[in-house]
Write a structure and sequence with these properties.
176 residues, mainly alpha, 7 helices, 85% helix
Length: 176
């Protein structure tokens, strides 16, 4: 089809002729897609751009005074691609800033974690020997109260008592 055919289809489109619009779309979609793909180097974004351009064309069909529809659509596609590139650049910069903040927060979190771990270890060292042994078996060796009771030949209630005592003694140490 020639440019004059495209212009004729657009004139019909301006008169709400959906069939003419669909023919115009079918006629120019692939060329506009390849053009935007060359600029964006991303298939999804290229398809989105062309779709946006045609949606805008349909929405504003009565307002637009276009002499050469092919030139108009290629220009609109180019500007829409530039808009996508600008948005993507801003998004990339924003993502970079967010990652930097996360890195800073991770460093702060790591320091907090190390400090808390140090406090817990110091607090565990202050526990009575039997309480420290039971707490360590429970929290570090991941043994159940029943397993600890069996290994140490004591009652489950005794294990529970020592764990409760260790938690009571460690809580203020960690909170400080």
């Amino acid at each position: 089809m020639k440019t004059s055919d495209s212009n004729y289809l657009f004139k019909l489109t301006r008169k709400d002729n959906e069939l003419a619009f669909n023919q115009l779309y079918d006629l120019l979609w692939k060329s506009l897609y390849l053009f935007s793909l060359k600029l964006l180097k991303n298939e999804t974004e290229a398809k989105d751009v062309v779709q946006d351009v045609f949606c805008n064309l349909w929405t504003k069909r009565k307002e637009l005074e276009i002499k050469n529809i092919n030139s108009y659509l290629f220009s609109a596609t180019k500007y829409k691609c530039l808009e996508y590139i600008r948005k993507n650049k801003n998004y990339t910069e924003l993502l970079s800033r967010v990652n930097q903040v996360n890195l800073e927060n991770n460093t702060e979190r790591d320091l907090d974690f190390k400090e808390t771990k140090f406090k817990i270890e110091k607090g565990i060292d202050t526990l009575p020997k039997k309480t420290r042994q039971i707490f360590t078996m429970s929290r570090y060796d991941d043994l159940s109260n029943k397993e600890i009771a069996h290994k140490l030949n004591i009652s489950i209630k005794t294990v529970e008592y020592h764990i409760t005592q260790s938690i009571k003694q460690l809580t203020p140490v960690i909170a400080s």
